[in-house]
Amino acid sequence: MLEIRNLHAKVDNNEILKGIDLQVNAGEVHAIMGPNGSGKSTLAQVLAGNGNYEVTEGEVTFQGQDLLAMEDPEQRAQAGIFMAFQYPVEIPGVNTQVFLRAALNAVRKSRDEEELDAAQFQALLRQKMKLVEIDPSFRNRSVNEGFSGGEKKRFEIFQMALLEPKLAILDETDSGLDIDALRIVANGVNALKTPENATIVVTHYQRLLDYIVPDYVHVLSKGRIVKSGGKELALELEARGYDWIKELEVPAGAGA
Amino acid sequence: MRTLTKTATDARDRYLDAFRTFEAMQPQNGDGISWLRELRTTASRRFEELGFPTTRDEEWKYTDISPIANLIGSPADAAQVQGLSASDVEPFTLQGLDALRLVFVNGHYAEALSSVGTLPKGVVLSSLAAAIRSDSPVVRSHLAQYASFENHTFVALNTAFFQDGAFLYVPDNTVVETPIQLLFITTSGETATIAHPRNLIVAGANSQVTLVESYVSTGQGTYFNNPVTEVVVNKNATFRHHKVQLESEQAYHIATMQVQQARDCQFASLAVSFGGSIARYDANAVMADQGIECTLNGVYLVAGQQHIDNHTVMDHAQPHCNSHENYAGILDGQARGVFNGKIFVREDAQKTDAKQSNRNLLLSPNAVINTKPQLEIFADDVKCTHGATIGQLDEDAIFYLRARGIDKEEARDMLVHAFASDLLTDIQIEPLRQQLEQELHTRLARNRQIRE
């Protein structure tokens, strides 16, 4: 589904990603872990198409298409990529329903599906709301405005439930969540899992992976994946911390 | 007395000549309206002394009105009233509402296009000229008592020259359920016309009124519209006022609203302006007694070479009054905007709570806004807050929307729309709200095409 080869990216002239290689297949859950500043969020932003990050080298193929050739973030979203933001943006004055309907119809249109009428849309909202235990009053609010940290993260997963992406990238969705909120968010993600889609969970803490069990764990350090393994690698990181990772050599063949 | 340049003197003299002609055409003394002749003469004299303001005048520092002073125009022609049909007018009306409506075409009352239906007992809704002819004691005691021309050239001009406008009188304890629309249409053609519409609105004690004052045009020509509206809100009355300015982009529009408020009344106004070539609006409220609520809100959207200027005065003359002011401006192209918000808190006006906000969104690097809060506080136990912001669209918010599949232009429109949405969604007259949101949308799309 997703194949990243030798990806380099910089922001404000600082090179953050220094040769990432990663392959994600349909039905898989990948966790990307690493210390602060290792480039985890940058990877998520680059895949989502944030124009503040400049790709300087490498290739990304998504479902057989050249992802980097899709310059507009909306093209990537329409192609089936969804990034749950680490810091969802508050947008005063934009009603959540107006926003969700615009997003859903944009994505549906790109899939050659009919736009939903008001009644169909409301029915779908009700169905998806249950999934992340979201309070119906959110419909009268502005996007993320005045939401608590937990509400914001739940709202991200709610959007994911609505848009049904092929590839979901959760950028530190667990940070700042209490255990109840974490459980709700994780249950939502697990409920959305199918053999046709894939999830990349970017996280600093192992805790989330108790709830969303990854097939693969990758450890990022200084812009490169320095170690990959199964779910037990996350436990090892939890036990030993990140210091030993920083001393690891880059595996042969990875990066430039 | 100030020294005037040659052109400024010419402009003034042209108006004074016009006044002598106008005056000679007015009914003579002895027919019961000598008070009006005197009023006009006094206003004309004051205009002669004031002349046209220049950018050296503090009140006009950022708005150069010399194109207006130099506009050679004729008084709007009464004959053109005949040229418009009901279907020409319909797009500007509160569609689907059984509203009460007075229509004025080029400043002249168009009875055939108006609709005054059945009014609650004692309510008078008529042309001001008709009310003056019938020697209405309400008109006589209120007209020109509030909108002072002592220091305002354009109010002086209006007072000297006005021919018609709306007169609304709502007796005490009367609720007018249906919104009332005062619709001023200019059929701007090849020759520039000049009109000075004059409105007098008197709402009795415990009354309730919703009013929409609309200024529109059917053409894209140059003309000068100089309306003055006086509103008297008596004790414990509730008054909702809307002003819509949707005119030719070549139009000159200088408007003044003067509100006089009595004890425990509520007055709330929203002015939505799409500008002209030069558009200026002075909205002034005097809170003359205690327990008053006053809201002056505004939205302005301009682009191209347009110039928009909003001046407000909240005059807290007595204790325990609350004022709210929220103006939001969206400027594109090379448009220029001005906001000046004065709050006076007089010596007696303890426990005043005054809030003022002016937010501006600049969509182009060449758009300009001059915004200035001006607080003059002479009481010591008051709360006054003010804030002015100038910003661009939030790039993070645009990315967030795009990352959900919404295309760039739609994302921008959503954010621009959001900027003014709190003020527009407040409009309780549904067809008016829809009409204004649609207009906003259409203009944003058009401005975007110009940008591309």
Mean pLDDT of chain A: 90
* CATH class descriptor of the domain at 2-90 and 165-246 in chain A: Alpha Beta
Radius of gyration of chain B: 22 Å
As residue ranges, the low-confidence spans of chain B are: none
**Termini separation of chain B:** 50 Å
Instruction: Compute the number of strand runs of chain A.
Output: 12
Q: What spatial form of chain B do the alpha-carbon principal axes imply? A: globular
| Strand elements of chain B, count | 22
* Major β-sheet profile of chain B: 12 strands, mixed
- Strand order in the sheet with the most strands of chain A: 6-9-10-3-11-12
Write up what this structure looks like.
- The complex is a heterodimer of chains A (256) and B (452).
- By secondary structure, chain A is of the alpha/beta class.
- Chain A has helices at residues 40-48, 73-79, 96-110, 118-131, 149-163, 179-192, 232-240, 243-246, and strands at residues 2-11, 14-24, 29-33, 54-62, 65-66, 81-84, 91-95, 142-143, 167-171, 198-203, 216-221, 224-229.
- Chain A has a six-stranded mixed β-sheet with strand order 6-9-10-3-11-12, with helices on both faces.
- Chain B has 452 residues and is of the alpha/beta class.
- Chain B has ten helices and 22 strands.
- Chain B has helices spanning 6-25, 34-50, 66-69, 86-89, 128-133, 137-142, 153-161, 395-402, 408-425, 430-451, and strands at residues 74-75, 100-105, 108-109, 124-127, 166-170, 180-186, 193-195, 198-203, 208-217, 223-225, 228-233, 238-246, 252-261, 266-273, 278-287, 293-302, 307-316, 322-331, 336-345, 353-362, 368-377, 383-391.
- In chain B, strands 1, 4, 5, 7, 8, 10, 11, 13, 15, 17, 19 and 21 form a twelve-stranded mixed β-sheet that branches. In chain B, strands 3-2-6-9-12-14-16-18-20-22 form a ten-stranded mixed β-sheet, covered by helices on one side.
- In chain B, strand 2 and strand 3 form a beta hairpin.
- Chain B is globular, with a radius of gyration of 22 Å.
- The model of chain B has no long low-confidence stretch (mean pLDDT 93).
